Amino acid sequence: MAKTKIEYTVGRTGEMGMDARPAQGPIAPVELEEPAFDADSMLINVGPQHPATHGVLRLLLELDGETVTRCTPHIGYLHSSFEKLGEYRDWNQIVPLTDRMDYLAPLIYNCAYVMAVEKLGGIEVTERCKVVRVICMELDRIFGHLLWLGTWAIDVGAFTPFLYAFQQREKIYQLHESYTGARITTSATRVGGMLADLPEGWAEGVREFVNGLQKTLDEVDALLTTNGIHVGRTQNVGVIGAEDAINSGFTGPNLRASGVPYDVRKDNPYYDYETYDFEVPIGEYGDCYDRYLVRMEEMRQSSRILHQALDRLPGGPINVDDPRVILPSKTDCMNDMESMIHHFKLVMEGVKIPEGDCYFPVEGSKGELGMYIVSDGGSKPVRWRIRPPSFVNLSVISKLVEGGLLADVIMVNASLDIVLGEIDR
Amino acid sequence: MTDRADESFDAVERGPEGAVESSASGAARVPGADERHPSVDALRERFPGALLRSEVQAGDQHVVFIEPDRNVEVLKWLRDEPDHRYNLLVDVTAVDYGGSRPIQLVYQLWSIPNRMGLRLKCELPLSKLEIDSVVPLWDTANWLEREVYDLFGVQFRGHPDPRRILMPEFYAEGHPLRKDFPLRGRFSRAEQTRRALTQDPEDYYPPTDFGPGRSPQVAREQAGSLLEQRPDRELPTNEERTETAPEDERGGAEK
Asked: Superfamily for A82-424?
């Protein structure tokens, strides 16, 4: 195949402003393979503003009739350089950046980030905090899956499940709001604990929600699982086998739908997940329909975990009793000299995390969510990296849709359950 | 003030002590700091020249520094060797420590059958930011390496699609996650504004999108000529549409 050479010019000093330094030098010219077009093929552009791409994803599709012969995804429209911003913020100030990435399951991101920092800092959180975080993470797994369920149903042409799912999501929004004060951007965690203890009646609210959810899941199950249109649109569409799925870096429900029982909660457990009684659902064929089944079952399993976590929710403090990471109470600050100095130091300098690096994976709603942090012993990270599950899952989309029909592109994209805020970061 | 208080302030000044070895946790066989990691030992035996040093981070995370020239060889062995089987490439990323220190390329591996993790690092000097691509081993590496190239400027030899991924195709300010890249970008705010106002939307369509051999400029000229034609053309009215279009179709069908 012919190659075309593209020259990028970087750092032409004449074009730079006064305070700009020359760049690193020219980026080496890259050689790209020319796409093999023939006269019969047609190019269509899906997105970036398209309701079925679930965000600002742009897919460039080359069609032969109705068959997709080439799919080139373009991302980056929502790039906010969170990782760069993190290098200019201290450890606790990064928490609000995390929930802006996956705004569909913000608490999982909040928790994953501080868990990585605590791991590197050797901070052992209290038992109550552990269980509260498990509740938060499982609640947001359902939160994320419910949004997927609603949009998935819309993409397949069914409007009712969307309303059912969003009715339940609204209850989680309210739980978020009563705990954190925000519906989406929760910023609920701090290094060493949570922003506050649970409000009165919150745990009961979660239990009430979980009990109500089962009925909705059953209803949606009845509407979709054996529905002829749904089955016809999703079975044998976007098939990927176990070996390919692992090689492509699939994680989470997408990987499990291909029959690989890899779940971070089981394989590399954190927060005593090994003591909770739950199953990891796996699929058989690795197609869109299996991904649907796996996520539906995961919501039921998360409900089981939620019930167990609520049962065992221990009393005691929610934050660690450590002046190096947690602010003293306001009363102590006003009455006690030592506490006031601790308060001053923490506010002015921030938490200090010892030198080293740490990769901490948790099972997010989209897949394995890893937080990789590098510290030089200061109050700001040298590097904060998110291992983005949607980003890696989306990179496979070309392989899944090429050779299929144009209509299947929408179903495959919906079945991957992506969130562009985290893909572009 | 008492000594105890002084000690306490020093402790706050120093911050937390760091990770200790985590308590035995469930199913995962994560070797602790004093425990030896079987894969690290095996690597030391199998690739004595390629393994530069190893360390334990965050209590129980084993990190191996390898020779950048032999990354593919080592990773392929780790992936395929039956005792290790690191079949999931979790992450590829890079770390720039600044101060013209080498950039570290980080491979995070996980073995699904053995439930073990391992982190590999390659140190690349700023003068030679080049390394072999591992896309032949894992498809995962495709986008992850593109991201490292985009944000750090590391060149991956043999990468099938070495384009920028998050930043625009024609981004001219360099590689944003490098430490010498200022938070607000290299260009002044005035220059950035000028560029934003004079940019052509067609710049967002890389040449490969338009087909063989057509540079964006040519494509733009073609698109421009179409745009010029557009105002002269009047949209057909409803009557015209019903008069002309179906007849053509019918005519085609009869033939």
From this structure: Cytochrome-c3 Hydrogenase, chain B (1.10.645.10)
